[in-house]
């Protein structure tokens, strides 16, 4: 009777389980790479759409630290932080630019940047994930 | 058909005043819209498809029932070939303001 044997299966299973439980450090690095792309795109698109009187709003765009979303997924938010010299929240100024108001046309720089930067952000994260897999010989 | 024509054809049966950017007329209920386009899926140094990211703004005086407009507008946009619109209520104390955000992704759309 023919005999069939496999060696290294338990190591492979261990490696695959390791991938399924992506370490926080790798996830953080991936999210930071994506956040940096989106931050840059929001500033570029904002400039192109004319969201620039003093430069404070676009200059305030930053990202927070990694957290957990409502579904338990790891998330990192990109947002305008702080207040301008008039005491207005930079996020509120960005909101009015994004949606406009009666008599003021919208400049939807955040949504446009997020949509048009999505592929580049995913590629930046994929490079880090690929490097993580290669370090595990996968 | 251009993007502008496609939007106006969908919206004007519901809200006759529908213009790009800023409305300067006298209708109390009106819509404005804005959009940007970017190339996707590049090949041979040119985009194979163009993605259009669109906002439509519905403005109403305070006290006017928005329900008569919001659902018909979303439905009309979908039937016109746009993606199902997300909607945000960004009203202030002076006027009701609803923003519909949606996209159009096509290989070619005339001179739009």
| Named CATH topology of chain B | STM4215-like
Ends distance of chain B: 7 Å
Instruction: Indicate the proportion of strand residues of chain A.
Output: 5-15%
Note the run of SSEs of chain B as H and E: HEEEHEE
How do the SSEs of chain A run, as a string of H and E?
A: HHHEEEEHHH
SS strand fraction of chain B: 35-45%
Catalogue the unreliable spans of chain A.
Answer: none
Describe what you observe in this structure:
With 138 residues, chain A is mostly helical. Chain A is 57% helix and 7% strand. Chain A has helices at 9-20, 24-49, 56-59, 90-99, 109-116, 118-135, and strands at 61-63, 67-68, 74-75, 78-80. In chain A, the strands form two sheets. A two-stranded antiparallel sheet of chain A has the order 1-4. The longest helix of chain A has 26 residues, at 24-49. In chain A, 23% of the residues are buried. The mean pLDDT of chain A is 92. By secondary structure, chain B is an alpha+beta fold. Chain B has helices spanning 3-11, 67-79, and strands at residues 18-20, 30-43, 46-60, 86-89, 96-106. The N and C termini of chain B lie close together (7 Å). The A-B interface holds A 95, 99-106, 108, 111-112, 115-116 and B 21-22, 32, 34, 36, 38, 51, 53, 55, 57, 59, 88, 90, 92, 94-95, 97, 99, 101, 103.
């Amino acid at each position: 009777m023919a005999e069939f044997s496999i060696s290294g299966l338990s190591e492979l299973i261990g490696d695959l389980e390791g991938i399924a439980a992506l370490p926080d450090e790798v996830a953080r690095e991936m999210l930071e790479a994506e956040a940096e792309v989106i931050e840059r795109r929001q500033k570029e698109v904002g400039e192109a759409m004319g969201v620039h009187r003093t430069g404070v709003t676009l200059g305030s765009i930053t990202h927070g630290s990694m957290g957990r979303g409502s579904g338990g997924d790891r998330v990192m938010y990109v947002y305008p932080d702080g207040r301008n010299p008039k005491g207005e929240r930079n996020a509120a100024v960005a909101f009015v630019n994004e949606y406009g108001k009666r008599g003021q046309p919208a400049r939807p720089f955040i949504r446009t940047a997020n949509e048009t930067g999505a592929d580049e952000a995913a590629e930046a994260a994929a490079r880090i994930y690929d490097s993580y897999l290669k370090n595990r010989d996968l | 058909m251009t993007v502008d024509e496609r939007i106006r054809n969908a919206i004007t049966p519901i809200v006759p005043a529908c213009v790009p950017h800023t409305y300067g007329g006298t209708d109390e209920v009106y819509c404005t819209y804005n959009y940007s386009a970017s190339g996707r899926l590049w090949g041979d140094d040119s985009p194979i498809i163009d993605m259009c990211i669109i906002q439509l703004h519905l403005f109403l005086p305070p006290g006017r029932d928005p329900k008569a407009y919001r659902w018909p507008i979303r439905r009309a946009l979908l039937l016109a070939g746009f993606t199902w619109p997300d909607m945000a209520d960004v009203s202030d104390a002076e006027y009701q303001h609803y923003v519909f955000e949606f996209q159009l992704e096509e290989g070619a759309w005339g001179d739009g």
